[in-house]
Amino acid sequence: QVQVAESGGGLVQVGGSLRLSCAASGIIFSLNDMGWYRQAPGKQRERVALINRGGTPNYADSVKGRFTISIDNAKNTAYLQMNSLKPEDTAVYYCNIRSAWYGRDFSGQGTQVTVSS
């Protein structure tokens, strides 16, 4: 059984930092593509950052230079380091794992990030 859980969200002031974590069981990050997505109220879910099985990251233009995606294979945990946060970064952030083995994506319940000005 695959379980995915995000954590690390919270309330932060403009310019602050947060590190989101995504812990998974029943699936191995290094064997799959994964990404972080976010959804703000009234808006569609958007891709924030992706990292493929080879470890190559890809970022949305809106977060380039501010966010860093990484995976700790020993802990089977993915991270999203977010720096220089802006009010427009406010959203629920989701970790998504795309499994070729299972033929589907897995996500958690999300974690709320609120950036106050």
Strands, helices and their partners?
Elements: E1 3-7, E2 10-13, E3 18-25, E4 33-39, E5 46-51, E6 57-59, E7 67-72, E8 77-82, E9 91-99, E10 104-107, E11 111-116
Parallel strand pairs: 2-11
Antiparallel strand pairs: 1-3, 3-8, 4-5, 4-9, 5-6, 7-8, 9-10, 9-11
Could you describe the 3D structure shown?
The structure is a single chain. With 117 residues, the protein is mainly beta. It has strands at 3-7, 10-13, 18-25, 33-39, 46-51, 57-59, 67-72, 77-82, 91-99, 104-107, 111-116. Strands 2, 4, 5, 6, 9, 10 and 11 form a 7-stranded mixed beta sheet that branches. A 4-stranded antiparallel beta sheet has the order 1-3-8-7, with no helix packed on it. A hairpin with a 5-residue loop joins strand 5 (46-51) and strand 6 (57-59). It starts with a strand and ends with a strand. The mean pLDDT is 96.
